[in-house]
Specification:
Mean pLDDT: 96
Number of strands: 6
Strand content: 25-35%
Radius of gyration: 17 Å
Largest sheet: 3 strands, antiparallel
Strand order of the largest sheet: 1-5-4
Number of helices: 3
Order of helices and strands: EEEEEEHHH
Shape: elongated
Distance between the termini: 24 Å
Length: 124
C-alpha cells in the first residue's frame, strides 16, 4: 500500500480510455511544505496500490449517469475478476465453501459501495 500526500483534495482522474484512478482511503493531514522551517499546511493523505496513493480500476465509457455503478464494478474487479464473480454468484452458496465465498463477495461489494459513495460526495 502506497501513501501520497497532497495539499489539494482529490477524488478520481481518468487514466486512459480503459482505466480510472480513484483516491480512496482519504485522511486529513498536515503536509510539510518547507523542510527547513517545518512549515505545514492542511492537506490530505491517500492510500492505494499506485505510487500516487490511488487505486487503478478498469472502467470505460463512464458518464455522469453511470459513474457510480462503473466505479463500484471497477473496484470490485480489483479483488474479484469477472470469472470469479460469475462463479461465486452462480454457485449461490450451495456448499459451505461457496457460502463463505459469497459472504466475502457481498461484504467486499458493500464496502466498495460505501467507498465510492464517499468518493463521489467529496467537495473539491
Amino acid at each position: 500500500m502506497n501513501k501520497a500526500s497532497y495539499t489539494e483534495r482529490k477524488n478520481f482522474v481518468k487514466y486512459d480510455n480503459e482505466h480510472y484512478l480513484l483516491y480512496l482511503n482519504e485522511e486529513a493531514a498536515e503536509i510539510v511544505v518547507n523542510e527547513e522551517t517545518g512549515e505545514t499546511v492542511a492537506g490530505y493523505n491517500y492510500y492505494g496500490n499506485e505510487v500516487d496513493g490511488s487505486v487503478k480500476i478498469k472502467a470505460s465509457d463512464v458518464t455522469e449517469d453511470n459513474r457510480r455503478s462503473k466505479f463500484i464494478a471497477g473496484l470490485i474487479g480489483t479483488e474479484f475478476d469477472v470469472d470469479a464473480q460469475i462463479a461465486i454468484l452462480a454457485n449461490d452458496g450451495d456448499t459451505t465453501e461457496h457460502a463463505n465465498d459469497l459472504a466475502r463477495f457481498k461484504a467486499f461489494r458493500s464496502n466498495c459501495k460505501i467507498a465510492i459513495d464517499e468518493l463521489l460526495s467529496r467537495t473539491l
